[in-house]
Design goal:
This protein is an alpha+beta fold and about 70 residues long. Helix content is about 50%, strand content about 20%. The longest helix is centred in the first third of the chain and has 15 residues. The chain is globular, with a radius of gyration of 12 Å.
Length: about 70
């Protein structure tokens, strides 16, 4: 397996958001086949450049845990 470039991962994140609207970080991990730390790093960069909006939710209705969602700006 070859290592993907950061730009390729960011493109995949943006493609997923275009298709699905607002998604959780966990969903992004699954849909882009990328680990949590990498997703967080790239989402932070995309947020810095004004491409996405990150929302931190205090509680998930299903399990009571906090979670974060991402959507296009």
């Amino acid at each position: 397996m070859t290592r993907r470039e950061g730009l390729d991962i960011k493109k995949k994140i943006l493609d997923v958001l275009k298709q699905h609207g607002e998604v959780s970080l966990r969903e992004l991990e699954t849909k882009t086949n990328t680990n949590n730390i990498t997703i967080q790093k790239h989402v932070e960069e995309l947020e810095f450049f004004g491409k996405v909006v990150v929302t931190k939710h205090p509680k998930n209705d299903k399990n009571g845990r906090p979670f974060t969602t991402v959507r296009l700006k």
